[in-house]
Amino acid sequence: MISYYDLLGMIKNGNIPEKVKFDGDIYIWNGVNYFSEDVLGYLTDDKNEADMLKKDIEIIIDDKKIEKLKLENGHIAEVLENGDEHWYTISSAQRILASKINEIIEVLNEKEKIQNNKKQ
Length: 120
Hints:
Helices cover 36% and strands 25% of the residues. By secondary structure, it is an alpha+beta fold. The chain has two domains: 4-60, no CATH class; 70-119, no CATH class. Strands 4-3-2-1-5 form a five-stranded antiparallel β-sheet, with no helix packed on it. The chain has a three-stranded antiparallel β-sheet with strand order 6-7-8, covered by helices on one side. A hairpin with a 2-residue loop joins strand 1 (19-22) and strand 2. It is elongated and about 65 Å long. The two termini are 13 Å apart. 6% of the residues are buried.
């Protein structure tokens, strides 16, 4: 939870949270202001400024699952932004390293999932 002052400071410094929650409504940053489809309005619309300064704002962080490396028969895939895959042959040592990286990714994703469940 942060104050409205803190949120303004984050925006000023360019560290803008994508989603925030205020008074039970979720607001999404649109590049200029926070807009809520729940109330069809902006975070600052029709609000008592003194009330906003007293209440906390929650930053909402969506699950960001880390994608595992794609490994198949001694090859590794580079997945491009458009979804295309380029496959490369890798050595045994690289295969072992890639497998260990995938294990670490699994652990990190599980920890993230547990932390997010505790927050809810």
